[in-house]
Amino acid sequence: MGTVAVHGLCKSFGKVQALDGVTLDVPDGSFFVVLGPSGAGKTTTLRAIAGLEKLDAGSVHLNGRDATGDAPATRDLAMVFQSYALYPRHTAYENIASPLRARRCSPSEIAAAVKQMSSLLHIERLLQRRPAQLSGGEMQRVALARALVRRPRAFLMDEPLTNLDLKLRVEMRTELTRIHRSLGATFVYVTNDQVEALSMADQVAVLKEGKVQQVGTPTEVYERPANQWVAGFVGSPPISLLACHAEGDRLVGAEGWTLPRPRWTTAEDGRALLLGLRAEDLSVEQRGNASLSGELYGLEPLGDRTVVDVRVGTEILKVKARPTVTGTPGERLLVTVDLDRAHLFDAGTGLSLAEAGR
Ligand SMILES: Nc1ncnc2c1ncn2[C@@H]1O[C@H](COP(=O)(O)OP(=O)(O)OP(=O)(O)O)[C@@H](O)[C@H]1O
């Protein structure tokens, strides 16, 4: 069993409110990602779970038991950080074995556990090397093996892939998902990288300025963002947000455009709204059920696709297009919109108003 639950966590550092009522429920065996920008309070949340932070308010429950006052060493959690923190003079084998030695396991138990973890992480051939003889990715694997070998009730991982180059990071994402599946352990994983979050998580909690904005599956967070901020933070290229209001059966843009009012919206006429349109729900070819007129502002070729920036008045729409798309800045373009997939937010509160009516 490895459930982790935190309730109403509050923590200030001087004038900075790092955590402002954080409540999370991490089910046993889940890959739970805490996603947020720098300074959101992610590390402080992990440290609170580990017992490394004295809280102003709130509680931490491990396996359903209140562990708020427990010393870190008694919580049976393993932390994996960005920095590998390997013992430089020890071989990879000795590094991985160290937590078991500290527990006074027998040499045969240690050998079996190191063998199993190194095979899971594909590092068997590196066991006799010292950290200086390993690449960053290899060191990260050794550090992971050292954390995993202990078999704690849950793993707390603080941006463990940040120091790796892009190719390795992508590889390690797949590896971590595989390792998680084969161990069946609980992972609480902190990152500011939304691709990492969406690709690995069972559940994502989106954090901003010490407050949880939304908790859901990656699909829920992407497809049904609770507010404008989550919509903008999750997704690449970022969602385009256009100021508008409803008027009868039309949506009228601050920039003068109009679109049919989506059937599902209940917003009263005149209320200030933001229309959120994701790049893949827009097209510069004739595809959607309504259109906006603008001019080509720029092209961003990304290999498998090109992002077309279209200027509508003073606002820029990001449109996903085929890699072969061409055009000259300034030329007129018609952007078709899949309104069934559009999002509407209250411009004042930022909250989504779509879900109730869909
Ligand atoms: N020991 C500390 N003393 C003072 N301020 C701190 C301390 N630890 C964290 N903070 C502040 O609390 C806020 C939250 O920090 P935290 O490290 O939890 O954010 P984070 O989401 O993990 O950010 P990052 O992605 O940059 O690591 C930040 O404004 C940070 O500057």
From TrEMBL:
Residue ranges of the TM segments: none
GO CC annotations on file: ATP-binding cassette (ABC) transporter complex, substrate-binding subunit-containing
A molecular function GO annotation: ATP binding
Keywords for this protein: ATP-binding, Cell membrane, Membrane, Nucleotide-binding, Translocase, Transport
Signal sequence residues: none
InterPro entries assigned to the protein according to its UniProt record, in alphabetical order: AAA+_ATPase, ABC_transporter-like_ATP-bd, ABC_transporter-like_CS, ABC_transpr_MalK/UgpC-like, Mo/tungstate-bd_C_term_dom, NA-bd_OB-fold, P-loop_NTPase, Transp-assoc_OB_typ2
PANTHER family, per the entry: MALTODEXTRIN IMPORT ATP-BINDING PROTEIN MSMX, TREHALOSE IMPORT ATP-BINDING PROTEIN SUGC
UniProt-recorded name of the protein: ABC transporter permease
Organism expressing this protein natively: Micromonospora sonchi
